[in-house]
Amino acid sequence: MPSSSSPSSPSFVKVVEVGPRDGLQNERVVPTAVKVALIDRLADAGLSVVEATSFVSPKWVPQMGDAPEVMARIRRRPGVSYPVLTPNLKGLEAAIAAGADEVAIFGAASESFSRRNINCSIAESIMRFAAVAERATAAGLRVRGYVSCIAGCPYEGRVDPAAVADVAKALLDLGCYEISLGDTIGVGRPREIRAVVDAVSRKVPVERLAMHCHDTYGQALANIHASLDCGIRTVDSSVAGLGGCPYAKGATGNVATEDVVYMLDGCGFDTGVDLHRLAETGQWISAELGRPTGSRVARALLAKQPPPS
Amino acid sequence: MPSSSSPSSPSFVKVVEVGPRDGLQNERVVPTAVKVALIDRLADAGLSVVEATSFVSPKWVPQMGDAPEVMARIRRRPGVSYPVLTPNLKGLEAAIAAGADEVAIFGAASESFSRRNINCSIAESIMRFAAVAERATAAGLRVRGYVSCIAGCPYEGRVDPAAVADVAKALLDLGCYEISLGDTIGVGRPREIRAVVDAVSRKVPVERLAMHCHDTYGQALANIHASLDCGIRTVDSSVAGLGGCPYAKGATGNVATEDVVYMLDGCGFDTGVDLHRLAETGQWISAELGRPTGSRVARALLAKQPPPS
Predict the structure, then answer these.
(1) Structural contact between residues B243 and B216, judged by C-beta atoms closer than 8 angstroms
(2) B50 with B80: CB under 8 angstroms?
(3) How high is the pLDDT of residue B222?
(4) Half-sphere exposure of B81 (CA within 13 A, CB side)
(5) Among candidate residues B274, B207, B211, the one with its CA nearest the CA of residue B44
(6) Residue A250 is nearest to which of B191, B265, B303, comparing CB atoms?
(7) CA distance B188 to B211
(8) Half-sphere exposure of B59 toward its Cβ, with a 13 Å CA cutoff?
(9) Does B263 sit within 8 Å of A190, measured CB to CB?
(10) What percent of chain B stands above pLDDT 90?
(11) Are B52 and B22 in contact (CB under 8 A)?
(12) Is A268 left (phi over 0), alpha (psi -120 to 50) or beta?
């Protein structure tokens, strides 16, 4: 099934599955075996990138405390990348020891968010990431960069697209092969997202950009579609919308991979993802977590009945 | 607040609120006083069109059995239209007697759906509507037309955009001042919606078209945004997503007005709608119905807290 579409096709959109990391780090602690099964099932469904875990202090993120064990137990499917988050050199060394082939670093376009989220200024974070990126590259690992708060910050409100472009360019200059633009609090609307992508594209080739939308305000698919219009061909998403129960107060609201793939399928894009297998995986992990799926496509497919006769 | 935006402005998008009719006809029966308060509050929030009720047989739609009473009790706000659904001459006469100034007729782009929903072929439905439209126009009422199943039919699957265009043109020829294109089962994706709008626009001026999206598969805002790109400037939606609890099996899933207005606000369009008052109304009616809101914007606004200090 994944063989029918090729990343070299002009209609290919790469879907980066972030559920096991960006999703599960915001859910209750899940057994390692469940994480491993989730990652393997996602790769089997045709996803070519599955962000697997995060090498951070278990003091801060206990949900990711089993990162080395996860990496040891997943079945590495040929052609699939399993990036892991490494905020600092200590995390990077642990990731290298665990056999990671790709790491991700996480910057912000908002000073206040940077200070509160990673406890340093944007400039300081870039310096810190420079050491991580240099060491990772020397060790033969690919490095992915994230920019958070691209359309708004919980502390500062509006974020200037030029600030997003500056951080994205800095990450590119550090050697990141791809920069993911994250609307962390989901406040952006299509025109605003276009403005950000336009601003960033002037400093970073659009082929190197990914869109990472949260659906907190229901805008994620509209924003992703707008970014496709701007030439974006890489989209981050989370199976079943993991990482923010849409019914909970303060939900972070990752956009559901099922909903993204359904849209891409209908817009003439190839993803290599088998929607049916993906939706089954989303149902399974939702049941494991004891929560309803955050995917509307999954709910619709579940509700679908043969027409009344 | 509604005075700050004018329907004659090029950036004006008319939001047609369908919650009291398309929404409540798919919820449990609601007291007349609640319906009246809902309609009045929506008009007070700045909506210039509030579809109020349906003059259909209470045998088929008991939720709308109090249509004359609703029309008698609402406070008609100057400049606001209160269309009502009238599937046949009997309903139309009742609507005229109740003082309606605008009626709506409801056709389908799919033969199977037409037969199952209104028990006649598309051609027969147009003949039936001709009599309704003629009598309504003679009585000085405006007539709005709906075309359902524009992107897919629960019985036939894919629907040909040319078939949508034919029905839309037939409704135009009957004298409808506006034709609302409904993705009744919410299966369409942006490229498919664009294809439909393009096909219909060749037969009906785009200024006469409205987009009516259901969010069953989470595609509604992306589809509405795509239709705006095609020149559509009228959008139907339902406060709080009334008319299909998003958590229920078989949800019909009207797109929430709050989510539409939030997107339009951020895309440089004027709607005349006060999002805050609208969201309050959505919370109030959701509480009256004892169900969670279907609006993600409403949930996000509710969850919003001052940033941690």
Answers:
(1) no
(2) yes
(3) 98
(4) 18
(5) B274
(6) B303
(7) 12
(8) 1
(9) yes
(10) 81
(11) no
(12) left
Task: Check CB contact under 8 Å for B307 and A191.
Answer: no
CA distances from B134 to B88, B101, B104, B105, B165 (A): 12, 14, 13, 12, 21
State the average pLDDT over residues B200-227. Answer: 97
> Rounded to whole angstroms, what are the CA distances from A40 to A50, A71, A80, B186, B287?
9, 11, 10, 31, 42
Within chain B, residue ranges assigned H as helices are: 32-44, 67-73, 89-97, 111-118, 122-138, 161-173, 190-201, 220-229, 257-266, 275-289, 296-303
CA distance B228 to A15: 26
pTM (2 decimals)?
0.93
Within 10 angstroms of residue B119's Cβ, the number of other Cβ atoms is 9
Phi, psi torsion values for B218, nearest 5 degrees: 75, 10
- Ranges in chain A, pLDDT < 70: 1-5, 244-252, 305-309
Contacts of A45 (CB under 8 A, 6+ apart): A273, A274, A277, A278, A281
Alpha-carbon distances of B304 from A155, A184, A212, rounded to whole Å: 12, 14, 21
Segment (H or E) for B210: strand B209-213
Could you tell me how many CB contacts below 8 A there are between chain A and chain B? 119
DSSP one-letter code for B240: G
The answer for B82, left when phi > 0, alpha when psi is -120 to 50, beta otherwise, is beta
Residues whose CB falls within 8 Å of the CB of residue A177, separated by 6 or more in sequence, listed in order: A142, A143, A144, A208
Side-chain-side CA neighbours of A168 within 13 Å: the count stands at 29
The pLDDT value recorded for residue B308 is: 45
CB neighbour list of residue B3: distance below 8 Å, 6 or more residues apart: none
Residue A39 is encoded by which pair of tokens? 């990652």
CB B217 within 8 A of CB A296: yes
Residue position matching structure tokens 């096709």: A9
Between CA A212 and CA A196 the distance in angstroms is: 12
Q: What is the pLDDT of residues A151-177, one digit of tens each?
A: 999 899 999 999 999 999 999 999 999
Cα atoms found within 13 Å of the Cα of residue A101, Cβ hemisphere only: 10
Q: Give the single-character DSSP code of B157.
A: B
Measured in angstroms, the CA of A154 and the nearest CA of chain B are apart by 7
Among B192, B216, B226, the residue with its CB nearest the CB of A296 is B216
Q: Exposed, middle or buried by CB within 10 Å (0-12, 13-18, 19+), for A84?
A: buried
Catalytic residue among A149, A153, A176, A245: A245
User: How far apart are alpha carbons B281 and B151 in whole angstroms?
Assistant: 31
Reference A163, options A178, A175, A181; nearest CA is A181
Task: Name the residue of chain A whose CA is nearest to B241's CA.
Answer: A218
Nearest to A92 by CA among A22, A26, A24, A139: A139
pLDDT for A3 equals 43
Min Cα–Cα distance to chain B from A183, Å: 14
